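Sample intake — ABC transporter domain-containing protein
Collected from: Psylliodes chrysocephalus
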Amino acid sequence: MEAVLHESTYVGNSKVGENLKYSGGFESVRPSVHANVNSEKVHFYNGNKKMESFQNTVDIEFENITFTATQGNILSKKSQKEILHRVTGRFPPGQLIAIMGPSGAGKSTLLDVLSGYRLQGVNGTVYVNGRTRNLKQFRKSSCYITQDDRLQPLLTVEENMLVAADLKLPSTVPSSEKNKIVDEILVTLKLSETKRVRAAGLSGGQKKRLSIALELVSNPMVMFLDEPTTGLDSSSCTTCITLLKQLTQQGKTIICTIHQPSASLFTMFDQVYVLADGYCLYQGGTSRMVPFLEDVGFPCPKYHNPADYVIELACGEYGQDKPEKMIGATKNGRSIQYFNDPDNLLNYSKYKDNENKISKDDGLLPTSQLNQLKVLLRRGFLKSARDETLTYLRVGTNIVVGIMLGSIYWKAGNDGSKVLDNYNLLFAILMHHMMATMMLTILTFPQEMSILIKEHFNRWYSLKMYYTSVTLVDIPISIVCCFLFTIIIYFMTDQPNDSVRFLMFFATCMLVVLVAQGVGLMIGAYFDVVNGTFIGPTLTVPMMMFSGFGVRLCDLPTVMNWGSYVSYLRYGLEGVVGAIYGLSRDTIECPEDKFCLYKYPKEFLEMVDVRSDQFDNDMIALFIFLFILRISAFVVLRYKLISVR
Ligand SMILES: Nc1ncnc2c1ncn2[C@@H]1O[C@H](COP(=O)(O)OP(=O)(O)OP(=O)(O)O)[C@@H](O)[C@H]1O
């Protein structure tokens, strides 16, 4: 089988193998820049075939891995549960390895631990080519492909790939070469036909292949895939596993979790690692599982899929003693007796290095911060231009709500008999800006969050640059929405025809929008959609109470005074009221047939207890809110990224 991949291989920031031809499945690369890769002439095994290559292959060995999950939170008592129990194993290079087991056996957990995705609660040692895994180095040569396809739905296959190439390949690689690499990967993964299709329009199998293609751009030597076949029909499963098998021909170590493969799919794997209840039941060659079962005294019945049978054994369907006996026979993963060629496994003299637990992004990312920002901004603006909710619906809502409020409060701004109505309108405007912006962010950010977790772990960019791009991309659309709304409402309701007042009004609304977005980002980053949609509006009520609308600030009980200082709506209200009724505004015209209680702005301001001379302070307060909330949202994001691991 001939595997064709990009001819130039870029690892980390260096081009390590120029003009390579993958023929017969082998690449020949110069020693790589990685510390943890084996640049010696090595032998590795693919199936039963002994291969020889100069190769930066990665051999993974793990010893006594334990994972303890902590359950509960600050409100409930914390409890601990051991999920993996001192499992040991070995995943040689150039092999397609399946981690199998019943549901809840700990497959995904083991994959998370080995990839370095999960760090908290993990004990035991992972060796990479005989040396303790240095996480920072290991992440440079590996990638993790999640079970759910976390793709940018609004970008086409090609656009998704080019973004990956721009972020994962050094900036020194010319665009023409990046295009070539992308094209070659798409051909290999049979995606060239769908190049111009948006990711949202792909089938399940195509999405899975695109997820793999995105990570292949940096040519990782180790690939971790969580259930790559879940949700695919049998033909797509076969295509997907065939492609992975093809990739192992280049010496890559490919480790997948898989539920219950069909017999034909099962035989495509070189090696299998069976887990049950966090213990290892079997590890070794796929073809040697049947002899193993015979040796332990549970022969696989004729015409029975061995993969099904071993899962049935693992589930205890044939008795609880069976899994225990198998764990004993494999020594919980220590035995390599059933490997395809145990005598020829590379013998590393193991030694322990300093393992970097949580590594900083610096030096880990293939491109500069500036390049990351540039690419992320480009992607962000492209998404914005195509996003029906975030852009078009948002613009539309602002226009429609503006016209609705404008019609209800038609010419109320310059009518002495409608001053109180106009005051209500000003508050309604702030509520609109706050709720629309905050809820939109709360609803849309969790989806971005899952993509961020994947891309950040796979070293596409730093959190700082991601956050900066999210903030910058939203500014133009926020300005457009707020400006359209302000123009409509300001002129329909006949507010003072004064450019200074208009600018003061617009600036206050704009700042409320940006602050509300900060709140939305914080909530969206921490909570899922369900909890976020509960928390967001719930927090709004005290904000409104302490704004000075409804209950005047002077009427607040002394012990509750602090509330008015933490409500950004208070500063927003003061700002817009000051813009409309402050600056020593003249008496408001009163229609002849109406009674105008509040035609004197000064008296009205005293009545509602809003100070109109505080505009500068209001702006400063809103800027402080903006600054604190944006920093807090970043801290929450950072915490979230660390805590999921
Ligand atoms: N952070 C956690 N907190 C509590 N329990 C956890 C945590 N992570 C995993 N578990 C539990 O550990 C067990 C193994 O989970 P894991 O997702 O690894 O199983 P799996 O074999 O991949 O299952 P499936 O095939 O259904 O995805 C499950 O019972 C799960 O509930």
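Post-analysis note: The pocket of adenosine-5'-triphosphate is lined by residues 69, 71, 81, 83, 101, 103-109, 257, 259 (CB under 6 Å).
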